[in-house]
Amino acid sequence: MAVLPFILMFMSSITDESMIFQNGYSFIPDKLSADAYRYVLVNLGQIGRAYGVTVFITVSGTAVNLLITAMLAYSLSRPFLPCRRFFNLLVVLTLLFNGGLVPTYLVYTQIFHIKNTVWALLLPNLLMSPFHVILAKTYFINSIPSEIMDAATIDGAGEIRIFFRLVLPLAKPMIVTIGLFSGIAYWNDWMNSLYYITNVRLIGIQSYLNRILSDLQYLQSNEAAASMSGDISFPGMSIRMAIATMAILPIVILFTIFQKHFVRGIAMGALKG
Question: Architecture of domain 43-205+254-269 in CATH?
């Protein structure tokens, strides 16, 4: 039942626009049409580049996010960490407060100078989430026996070796869960492109599809543009469904593959009463 909305979305994207206006959305359309995809895929080169940028940012950003989150969560889970309560408080406070949009923009553009660079798609707002840190810390405390780490310490293993050789392999469900959260956030992000990117070669697929949708809305609402285009009728509703399908399909596939680990990681990382 969970896949029915996605099936309806895809079928609507290949439905003739007149049938949508006449009969609404349907799982079995009376008339098929690929006009929506012809409009969206008119510039395959730019779409391919946008997909490439998004895939690179998603993979690299998720990897760095996992490393930072796991290392910080592991440190906070160790009872002998100096100033442990202070660092835990800092993590919690970032859930409640942030610097605001304008100060954040000024810091990243005027101090770090990341505008129109790949770093603008990686760093702001997405590199680390305090929610992920709390989730991973809870998993380390509740699901990995401290006796195992104590035994490794007695055998002469240091904290770094314990973390990479012992803790991470045992925390695979949590790593997959946080990786999916982070990957989805990076894949769906278009705000960083809006704020920090003006170079069209660096925009991701979400930003590119959003621009297509904005252009379509302009053409449909502007009578002068419509008359200049020869009164062409654009398949507006089916184009929206095609854009949504192209944007969400890779994430749906990944979630289907890692669903078992995702559910297990959420269950084991939940707070116990």
Answer: Orthogonal Bundle (1.10)
